[in-house]
Amino acid sequence: MKPVELKKDIHWVGAVDWNIRDFHGYSTKEGSTYNSYLIMDEKITLFDGVKKGFTSDLFHRIHKIVEPEKIDYLVVNHVEPDHSGGLPEIIARIKPEKVFCSPMGKKALLAHYNEAKDWPLEVVKTGESLKLGRHTVQFVETRMLHWPDSMFSYIPEAKLLISNDAFGLHWATSERFDDQVDTAHLMEHAAKYYANILLLYSPLVQKVLAKVNELGLEIDMIAPDHGLIWRGDPGRIIKAYDSWSKQECRAKGLVIYDTMWHSTEKMAKAVAEGLVNQGLSVRLMNLKNTHRSDVMTELLDAKVLVFGSPTLNNNILPTVADFLTYAKGLKPTDRLAGAFGSYGWSGEAVKQITGYLEDMKLQMPEPGVKVQYVPGHDSLAKCVELGEKLGKAAIESGLPDCTPLESSC
Length: 409
Description:
By secondary structure, this protein is an alpha/beta fold. The chain has two domains: 4-245, Metallo-beta-lactamase, Chain A; 250-396, Rossmann fold (3-Layer(aba) Sandwich). The chain is 34% helix and 22% strand. The protein has helices at residues 55-63, 81-84, 87-94, 103-112, 183-198, 202-215, 234-245, 263-277, 292-299, 318-330, 349-359, 377-396, and strands spanning 4-7, 10-12, 15-17, 22-23, 26-27, 32-34, 37-39, 45-47, 73-75, 98-101, 121-123, 129-131, 136-141, 151-155, 160-162, 221-223, 250-257, 281-286, 302-308, 311-312, 315-316, 336-343, 369-372. Mean pLDDT is 94; it is low at 401-409.
């Protein structure tokens, strides 16, 4: 695959990882990319590296533009190993005059790589700039978006924002730009990325968006470190991040469960029926066959979350515990929640699910429903009622006029 020119003298020279299927617990079933960018100027500058094992791809593409040894500067926007893992090899070969990073970036590089003590590290902060010749690089620190070291590099002459992990997505494609692929599929990947990586940092996302607005950055292209480059309508992903970081929800409910002998599954269907009766769009998500990261993606714009599990050995099923632990770490807020489950003799599952939901500070307007052995008509009616009450509470909460996430809700 050849390098791709984004703007005059600015090129994508990254790597495509067609085979990665897991990104620390996040299912990347369509692969990913490790994007790196090269600016040809009086000072030739490379922005970000690639994951260890992909440096040959990087050098191959750079070689089609310039000898790698002629690169003057390296900018490290983010130190996570999927971008910095190849740095020891890259720096050893190109021997840059300077390696620019944020203050926390320098600490992270020194902590990750023994060789970094000998690298020509130069710290840059928000408001500082670097003149390359015809191009200027303006730096904006974006701490905890999603690592302490993260920063943006903005090229005002090109109206280009190199955004590290922000505005990214995991999707391996032969295309490089957002306007070359199916928009709905693109936004699904972008939503999944936000839900599983950045949801926790939503308050900081709001601050970064405000900072970009305050600085008056004119942006007509966003080049993230993963996935497609936003050139067709970069405002689409900025608008989506604004909505997702405000945790805006629509009239949608998720019934998230696992089951042993189908009793809890019957209850799940009854809860879903109650939600539908109140006009909510509903997804039933069986954790036995749905990956946690796909459930988190659906959760991104769902107002109601109802969890179900039978009791197994005085506990909830491992799949349900796994998802609740995962979701708790990502901190969804301002949702309505409920619990249900079947049991044989001890019946702790509903109480344990409730404990998770309380720890997550989700609103639980109704007590959970638990049923011994197989639910009958009366028990299922209680499940329908639970769904109806949660659905009614969601509608009465005043949901914003918000379209589904795949349309940039």
